[in-house]
Amino acid sequence: MKRFSMKQLILLLTVTLMGVIWSVIFHKPLVIGFLPGFLILVYLSMQNKQGVIQILQISIRGVYKTRIVILILFQVSFLLPSWYLLGTIEQMVKIALYFINPHYFYVLTFVAALVFSMLLGTTVGTLSAIGIPILGTAVVLNLQPEIVAGALVSGAFVGDRTSPFSSAHQLLAHTIELPVKKQWNAMLFTTFIAVGMSILFYGSFDIFSEVNVHHLEPLRWSELSMIKFIPPIILLLLVLFRVSIINAFLSSIISAGILSLIEGVPLVEIALAFWNGIKGLGGGFLHMYELLLFLALAGAYNGLLEELNVIQPYLDKWLQNSTSLAGDTFKTLLATLLISFIAANQTLPIILTGRSFLPHWSSKYGKAELARVMGDTTMIFPGMVPWSVLAIMCSTIVGIPILEYLPYALFLWLLPFLTLMVSLFKHFQKSKGIATA
What domain range includes position 308? Predict the structure, then answer.
């Protein structure tokens, strides 16, 4: 297989990044901005002696790998309308108002998302289970929804990155051939610091926020209907018992639809809500189909990158000249950030970075150090890149644009800087020890 030249790689990266940045800045569908990058990749693949049939087959395999994500977001478009029509969202907001102290809302939101994500091991599951009622409550309290969304996403990523139940955590351990317990221990120090600083950060917003609690009506338990709790309970229980998130969403949507019909909601109204969404809340297939097309295109793009070995030779070459733990940490951070920019998912950066850098890190510093660095960068960046599948899923579920809540998702911003500081400290400590000896 002929290797992609540096000029070809630079052209591919430039066209891809310019396209998606154009989409984000001018609020155009991502599938349109991403298409030129995909077409350039196809053209370069043909120049490198790949046949049209082979490129098509690889692209189809790439789309197939993203089918789970596509199905999840397809179902998310129906989840919120189904809960809204049944009255579930209104009732959950009332419950959340009762249990969460409004004066500590931001910090309690972060802690609640943290606890759920450590139990569930998934960002999507956590945001789906508690995101809607918490954000609905924030609106009633006149709090800033983008800060609440930032706290939710930050807390959700704690478990997605750190929980032993997380598939991404398990994938990283498998990729770098490190036991899960050792990987967890390697991430512990930066995790504690990032969580502590996040609590202080969200707590400071609570101190200076004015909460609209004067017009809140007291909760009357007799007015609540257990029927309206059935869809979220089904979702939560199925996720807790490790049933696939697709089946969990589907069961919750179907139950909400059937119960809405029983409660007297016309079938036509349900169908229109599923198609158009709910005004002021979102959802609906009409607002989702462009995103689903982008995910399919991104899957085909990732498939070509991976199977044609476009990036890995250059990653291997970049690490040949080793300098120090701090220097290699910075190199790994930049490399995995670049992969996250063009890969548009979480799986490919973990596999590409882990397999490419493993031999070097194993011989120089040990696998645990690589686990720490990748846990603080590779696991986090897909939640920060606006066109990444994981970031899009988070934004879709909370109903707030990525660029609006991202500045407040402090946990994601802290970890890359913390891991650089830890590597610098260890480097200076080692240098000092050598000098003393």
Answer: 67-427
